[in-house]
Amino acid sequence: MSSSIPAIVLAGSRPGPDPLLTGTSVSTKALLPIGGHAMLVHVVRALRGSPLIGPITILAQNSAELAAEPGLAGLAGLHFVDSGQGISSSLAAALPPGDDPLLVTTADNVLLMPTMVAEFLAGAEDSDVAVAMVERDVLLARYPESKRTWLKFRGGWWSGANMFRLRGRRVLPLLDFWGRIERDRKKGLKIVAAFGPWLLIGALLRLFTIRQGVARAGLRFGLKAKVVPMSEPEACIDADKPADIELIEAIFAARREAAIGQPL
Q1: Could you give the domains of the chain?
Q2: Which site from 29, 141, 177, 240 is most exposed, i.e. has the minimal number of CB atoms within 10 Å?
Q3: What SS3 class is residue 152?
């Protein structure tokens, strides 16, 4: 991949109270400190550390509040844009003109590393829509205590890794569709069923792999869609629940120890 692509970080708040913020003075999840920094800072630094990523747009209901975060000071190429209430409509409004590719991730994807970005973008080439995912055995081999939402297909159970590559505005019909079902994003079978009865039956009977299922779903919108399996299990550990925070803090501590042990 010879040139960099833009990135969008979804950093808004969902409707209703967030249990992660209970008892804190933090107003929005993206600014909740983990491992010594706000969640958003970890994600933006990882993106900025990748030579494959160009300008970064941060979408949130109150983007000025995020722009004032001291941990982002001095990082180049950051743009802050106010979003609406829905992820899909906000993302659709932020897409650049044309159909050049861009990366989308989330502010709670705090374990993101430049190596993950490189692996994902290499696997996402030649697609209109690509989704990063981790197979269950990959995660549980290292973190058996981690509990995720799994999509069950022939040949494996999969969890999303909060990275997407989109070919610009050609994905607008898909985003419009997602806007109607995103409230069920944690209910795997409801998501599959929304793409039609054949996909639901195929998933229930394990008639095809997740790669085949995602490809079929993309065809509904005239898009070439693919799954990019991630080799690093941390790719699907986002900060959703208090138990996630504990695990992420432990992973950050292990990373710091490993960095200290490396030769100069």
Answers
A1: 5-251 (3.90.550.10)
A2: 141
A3: strand
Phi, psi of 37 (to 5 degrees): -140, 155
pTM: 0.86
Helix, strand, or coil here: 57? Answer: strand
Q: Which amino acid is at 30?
A: A
Phi, psi angles (nearest 5°) of residue 214:
-65, -40
Give the Cα-Cα-Cα angle 47, 50, 53 (nearest 5 degrees).
70
Q: For the CA atoms of the chain, what is the radius of gyration?
A: 18
Q: Retrieve residue 252's tokens.
A: 């950050």
Question: What average pLDDT does range 52-73 have in this prediction?
Answer: 94
Among 74-78, 94-98, 100-104, the least confident range = 94-98
Q: How far apart are CA 264 and CA 33, in angstroms?
A: 29
CA gap 261, 82 in Å, rounded: 42
Confidence at 1, pLDDT banded by 50, 70, 90: very low
Beta partners for 130? 165, 226
